[in-house]
Amino acid sequence: MQLVILLVAVGGALVALWGLEKRRRKTYAVTGGLHPEVSLPHQAEFELYSNAFSHCSRKTRVVFAELGIPVRHHPIDLIETGWYQTISPAYLRINPAGLVPTLVHKGHPVYESDDIMAYAVACAPAGAPQLTPSAPAQSAEMERWIARATLPSEFTGEDAKRSAGACVPGLTLPIFTTAIRYISPIRILPGLLFHRQKSRPVFFLLARLQGLRLCQTPRIRGMIRFSRDQMKRHLQELEAQLAANGPWLMGEQYTLADVSWSAVLLRLDETGWLAWFDSVAPLPATLAYYDRLRGRPSWQTAISDMTHPVIERASRDLKQAIATDARLREALYA
Question: With a threshold of 0.70, does the pTM exceed it?
Answer without folding.
Answer: yes
